[in-house]
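Data deposition worksheet. Section B asks for the primary sequence of the deposited chain exactly as it was used as input, without tags or linkers unless they were present during the calculation. Section C holds the resulting structure in token form. Section D is free text for depositor observations; keep each observation to a single sentence. Incomplete worksheets are returned to the depositor.
Section A, Depositor: J.P.
Section B:
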Amino acid sequence: MQRFPLIKLVLGTAICALLAFPAFAGDSSFMVAAAKGKKTQAAPAASAGDIQAQLDTFAKNYLKNMNDCVSPSKKKQKSGHGGTYYLEYDPNSIKTSYKPSSNPAVQYIGYLHYDEVTYVCKGNDCKPASRNKLTELIMYVKGKWTY
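Section C:
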């Protein structure tokens, strides 16, 4: 039995997110420019509907990428909890919203709310054992959402 499986799980998931989702490695020069007091180039104005649609698409892709590399996964379950178990980020639980930012370099702050579900399996029978509500904050900069 491992001594710190939860820490390993959280760190593994964070590393997976960094590797699987290209927006994590995005250009952060706008934050440096804002910190130095330089003006950044404003993105063309988008309608509220367009911004919300982009946020919803970003959230859907984010959870898909997270589910593709989460460990333990449905395909690679771990032993424990009286059987085997795995994690899944529930794509049906996604709720998004955004608000204007007070930072001149960031137009909006987006909120991604979703559930992380732990399934416990006995044989081929898998049932949700726990559900954690998670929230991610993202930024809308230069006309696109980025982590």
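Section D:
Residues 48-69 form the longest helix (22 residues).
The chain has a mean pLDDT of 79.
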